[in-house]
Please model this.
Amino acid sequence: MQILRTISFAIILLLPFNAYSDEAKNWLKTEIDKIIYAYQNNDLPNENRFLMIEQTINNNFAGSGIAKFVAGKSWNGASKDTKLEYIKLFKRHLALNIASMMQGYSNQNYELKNSDYDEKNNVSMIDMEIYSDTGSILVTWRVKKSKNRYFVIDLLVADISLVVTKRSEFNSMLKTVDYNLEKFNAKLIAQNDLSYSKIIN
Model:
């Protein structure tokens, strides 16, 4: 009888966390489908398609927090205006990266699978498997709720963190300008413009 009570108590404790994970999973599916819809609509010009992706990324990624983390030690020495410009440029950079990855999309199927709630960090970990003719790839989304809405704080492809990868990539570029964020912004503008021209043409 004691064992049954213990099991029942454990289930009651876990129910709220399962609910968080399921809610986050449903939210994520809606947002992913918006991006996929843009690539399924052949009548949509490339520029409009990218703008849909950019809007979805800006609305749903914790862009400011990720941007600050990726900037590393260059963040503290920058002015407020420089930081605001950098955040805007970083968000576009992120959208361009995802749009570039989506260019190879050809109606692959995907399935949101396991979803776990990390109680310590208040983060939902949601596995997504993407299927193609040659196999499948696993992507894990890290989703956090803030102010009654969800945000993507990271995604892992084959266990490699996008945020950590971006920090390493940006650190190499920041070295070339002595970690001066204002000078780095000029580099990021040029890089974004080049990526944008490749996507819309």
Observations:
- Residues 78 and 181 are 6 Å apart (CA to CA).
- Residues 2-200 form a domain with the Nuclear Transport Factor 2; Chain: A, fold (CATH 3.10.450.710).
